[in-house]
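Batch job 17 of 40 flagged for manual review because the log was empty.
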Amino acid sequence: MVAPTWSPRRSQRPPPSRAPSQAPPTSKREHVTHKFTHGTHEGSHTMEKFHTHTGVAAPLMRSNVDTDQIIPAVYLKRVTRTGFEDGLFAGWRQSPDFVLNQDAFKNASVLVAGPDFGTGSSREHAVWALMDYGFRVVLSSRFADIFKGNSSKAGLLAANVEQSDIELMWKLIEQNPGIEMTVNLEDRTATLGSHTFNIEVDDYTRWRLMEGLDDIGLTLRNEEAISEFEAGRPSFKPKTLPARTAD
């Protein structure tokens, strides 16, 4: 088995991030349009449902990848929710040898990462940057709890896999760069070539992703009860005003 290149203590931190105006040029990858749509339909608020996904798997052989490494703080000044792909791993993407700069992985949508992924400060932008770049799935033997929670609320599948399986995945990808992986959330499996691995996803997160429900969607499942409560609420108490619609 190929020895992993990650350190069990701490990964090498990238060089200081450049300001957005000095950011590396947009990757040559064929950028995948942000697929996770939010809107109302017959009273429900949904994000794209996740059942199965097949896409190129990219190996990130680093441990302790914190949210500042995923997207440096200098990129968090935007007031929109999309467009963060240029900041994804900005410090590392300065190097032409970085995995996402390699032709085989420029269109990757499954990230196979080392342990302790998403540690550090809680910033939803880390999840948004991964999604904006085109990732649908991140696999790791350990995640920071906050990152994992943010992922499920945004529609990104962050699933645990045994470290020995992660290392085997790295080996298979190294032998066949550009190989595709199929992740089946219903069966909780990930298939790479002739190998099938178990992935760990708790029942609640699995249900939310398969139903395509973010926090607003969950709330609106009780819209009838909410409306009934508001109708009986005394008029002198604060109330929610109807949403304004654009002319």
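Reviewer: the log was empty due to a logging misconfiguration, but the result itself is present. Helices lie at 67-70, 124-133, 145-154, 163-175, 203-211, 215-220, 223-231. Unflagging and moving on to job 18.
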